[in-house]
Amino acid sequence: MAKIRPDELDDRLDAGTAPFVLDIRPKDHYRRGAIEGSYNAPVYEDVRSGDESSLRRHLDDIPRERDVVVVCKMGIVAKRATSILQSEGYDATTLAGGMSGWNGYQNGSLTYKIRSLLWRFF
């Protein structure tokens, strides 16, 4: 499964190759903090429980001509959503560590730095 590290996503967001960032977390989590410019499709609980139909109802809102980065809390449920999108023909990847990883990257936390080293090897 393809994944992108927070620092890589940040670089792409600053460059001319910005992907479509699909945040699948519940609306209240999204409202408390999200990646700027991301799109919220609050399907986290459904995808987590194995219901793909809720994500499929959002496909018309997800551009096919752009790379898609899927974001959830920690990256685990986003992997499932990424797999669904890939099966539908999207060039989709998962944000490694989810919003937890993104926030750690933004804050320069020690936990993020350790995780980042591990992501580079695994």
Can you tell me about this structure?
With 122 residues, the chain is α/β, with parallel strands linked by helices. The protein has one domain: Oxidized Rhodanese, domain 1 (3-Layer(aba) Sandwich), CATH 3.40.250. Helices cover 48% and strands 13% of the residues. The protein has seven helices and five strands. A five-stranded parallel β-sheet has the order 1-5-4-2-3.
Question: How many beta strands in the DSSP annotation?
Answer: 5
At CATH level 3, the topology is Oxidized Rhodanese, domain 1
Could you describe the largest sheet, including whether it forms a barrel? Answer: 5 strands, parallel
Sum up the overall morphology in one term: globular
CATH class: Alpha Beta
As for the number of domains, it is 1
The helix-strand sequence is EHEHEHHEHEHH
Quick recap of the structure?
This is Rhodanese-like domain-containing protein. By secondary structure, the protein is α/β, with parallel strands linked by helices.
Keyword list:
122 residues; alpha/beta; Oxidized Rhodanese, domain 1; five-stranded parallel sheet; 7 helices; 48% helix; GlpE_sulfurtransferase; Rhodanese-like_dom; Rhodanese-like domain-containing protein; Rhodanese-like_dom_sf
